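As promised in the previous annual report, we have extended the structural survey to additional targets. Below is the entry for DNA ligase.
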Amino acid sequence: MTREQAVQRHRELAEQIRRHDYLYYVLGQPEISDEAYDALYHELVELEKKFPELITPDSPTQRVGGQPLEEFRHVEHAVPMLSLDNTYSESELLEFVERVTRALRCPFVPMVVEPKIDGVSISCRYEKGVFVQAATRGDGRVGDDVTQNVRTIRSLPLRLLLASPPEVLEVRGEVYFPLEAFRKVNEERIRAGEPPFANPRNAAAGTLKQLDPRIVASRPLAIVFYAAGQIRGLSIRTQRQWLEFLGKAGLPRPERFWFCQNKEELLLAVRELDQLRPALPYETDGAVIKVDDWTLRERLGQTAKAPRWAIAYKYGSAKARTRLRSVTFQVGRTGTITPVAEMDPVFLGGTIVSRATLHNFDEIRRKGIRIGDYVFVQKAGEVIPEVVGVDVAARNGTEKEIVPPEQCPVCGEKLQWEGIFLRCPNLNCPAQLKRLLMHFAQRRAMDIEGLGEKLADQLVDTGLVQDVADLYTLQMRDLLRLERMGEKSARNLLEAIAKSKKQDAARLIFALGIPHVGETLAQELCRHFGNLNRLAQASLEELQAVPNVGEIVAHSLYRYFRDPKNRRRLERLKEYGVNFQCLERRLPVGPLSGKTVVITGTLSEPREEIARKIEAAGGRVASTVSRRTDWLIVGENPGSKLQEARRLGIPVMTEQELRRMLS
Ligand code: IVH
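The corresponding structure token record, generated without further manual editing, is:
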């Protein structure tokens, strides 16, 4: 290939990939299979290997590649990033309309209603259509340069889809953690003994503050834009025009917005958005109402903090108000410190609560919570209540700041910061051991009935158990020394411990509490390696070859099994007769390992035959399309499954493509 041909092909490939990224990540309407996409991408990578001079910062291959940073550089915003005033009722909203119309001396000023996206504010700068910088809001005037991290967000175009892009374009919006992915990440974190993120916003903030862009790339952040910063070489007159322009430029924008020409329409729009909220891919805690005409906005101006031409309308949710008396610090299984609010008891959602999670210090700072404050508590998701805000008006000046502890409240070790989390690095910390014991014994792990919080506390406090392996050396006479332990319960416990030795090794792998290893992954690891010994000896490359094991998880496993203390633990467990074998039927390993495939339409062979081949390649055949489906194989006259797969964004493969994959 000549250089000229290479230049030409490079341009074609980059353009096609950009278009397919847009179709897939922004519109959610892919036109080609993942296979076909991978082929294009692979060709581009190969081409750039041969002609490295063709690599530009906006090439689709340049999303990840940055090295971990020491710290973020500061960026001064060309146009300050303001915040918004809030309203909490329709009457307050109408007061805002009054203020605007009075100031402009019009009967009504057309407005646009958009969802208020609860993410992390971001400003992205494009010069001549090429993405050059992303910055967080910071204090509104100066923010952090998070360009490397934002580059990894797949719905962000690295180059605008415009033939003649403006000289300078700063687009402002929100980085968010898609709800579906948030649930998954938190489930995994809980199973792996890590503190769950407080909410999607916190997950997005925590991810964006990572100094290592590779970690950011491994999390499915998304982005959406709604406002403008500095603009040169483009004239926009209204918000409607602006939103239309964003769409044309390939920039993600809110999927719904309302143009309102009178108060009635405005109230209807706000109510309709409230109905629609559960269906949106991000959390919305309200609506943003904006004057549509940008010239009128200038006439309205702004206060030091917020524009006078826009307002946020917050939707309410059931909360209780009570007094925060003190803050305690809980040490998790992996040593993470969680601040817990100790409050005056209050009735909330059917129960009385007196403790609530404050999640982490980033959340405390963001919400401005102090000891002595009247706070609002809300039930988070299922059970754990959380402190969501402060009744600032109720302050009397005696409130005290919440200071992060310097030492572990349990073992006294000096604590370390890891991003937004504070952690106790002492692996022998009794708090960590107690939690590990409970994790080890829980039903989904080794299933040792009778070993709950109280017993774990006693076993650790008396020194009977200094490592989980010590469980298997416990004797009747040891247990009888414990408080409230009769002969019968001691015997039952010893039996339960003995029985646990026979559990499948997948449960043992999960029970060990290796960071990042949840229940599902433990099963996959167990099946893949067949037994715990082989897993413990695996090299980094071998670990990374397991489906669903990325760089971070592989390192975590590798580090765990290289630690002499952990090796000793495994040796002892084996010595005491704990089962290390995978008892489940091993699925064959192949190109479809761990993948769930659904078939629709008529294929050239009977379905059973195709299903057998898929299973021989490690895959599983399911009958209905769901979010868990990895591929849909499409034959002739496909049924409704194809529509469903398109709706869910699940990649589609023809029979031919399947054959190519299997060969
Ligand atoms: S417009 C000049 N539109 O909410 C301010 N903001 O609480 C322009 N936000 O700082 C902001 N969704 O980070 C605007 N559709 C939307 C929004 C939105 C979320 C955020 C934004 C703002 C914060 C204020």
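The CA atoms of residues 374 and 391 lie 5 Å apart. The pocket of 2-(butylsulfanyl)adenosine is lined by residues 82-84, 114, 116-117, 121, 174, 226-227, 288, 307, 310, 312 (CB under 6 Å). These points will be discussed at the next consortium meeting with the crystallography subgroup.
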